[in-house]
Amino acid sequence: MTEYKNITFLLADDHSLIRQGVEILIEDLGFEGDILHASTLQKVLACTAENNIDVLVIDAAFPDGNSLEIIPDLKTKYPELKILVFSGLEESDYALRFLNAGVNGFLTKVSEEEDIKNALMKVIVEGRYISSVTQGLLLNSLQNSSHQNPLEKLTKRELEVVQMYADGMGNLEIANALGLKQNSVSTMKKRVFEKLGIDSLVELAALLKKY
């Protein structure tokens, strides 16, 4: 546990009571690093840019948008960042969507304190928290994968990039259009190819045509 004690957390939720509650649980676990707070997505982006955040505990919805809009970019810019979604949304409806976006775990706000602590420790020590509910969702998804549209595995941003490739745009053009670095677009392209199990833009175009 010693090697994991000095960790910087960012707690992102538009309700201060939720952030304070999670902070208390983190302190109960014995961590000694900083615990920062953010109440909007814009503050999340600013805080991650200004600080070396190890673990982000984030709600799904904010007054200024849905965290799905920023999670893929955060994982691209900060690949070592561990993200635990702590949300009031139904796990059965949203967990896989967030996992596909790159988060390390999904937890509902109705969870017991011990479950929250367990999720935090799993994300920190093992890099992943998968509840029994999400395990069932993943198993069901694998069993039915042959009938699913593979493009459903992609996030909204990844689909946007895919469409730009289909329109004949290159990495630099896409980067300029989306305000990203060129290597960030390349990383996203690699992730898309891995999710879809393809190796070329030709195969990508074929998938788009099929689905």
Automatic annotation (TrEMBL):
Q: Show where the Response regulatory domain sits.
A: 8-124
Q: Which PROSITE patterns match?
A: HTH_LUXR_1 (PS00622), HTH_LUXR_2 (PS50043), RESPONSE_REGULATORY (PS50110)
Q: Which superkingdom is the protein from?
A: Bacteria
Any one Pfam family here would be GerE
Q: Domain HTH luxR-type spans what residues?
A: 147-211
Q: 4-aspartylphosphate is carried by which residues?
A: 59
- Entry keyword set: DNA-binding, Phosphoprotein, Transcription, Transcription regulation
What PANTHER family does the entry give? NITRATE_NITRITE RESPONSE REGULATOR PROTEIN NARP (PTHR43214:SF41), TWO-COMPONENT RESPONSE REGULATOR (PTHR43214)
Name the chain's protein: Response regulator transcription factor
> What are the top taxonomic ranks of the organism?
Bacteria, Pseudomonadati, Bacteroidota, Flavobacteriia, Flavobacteriales
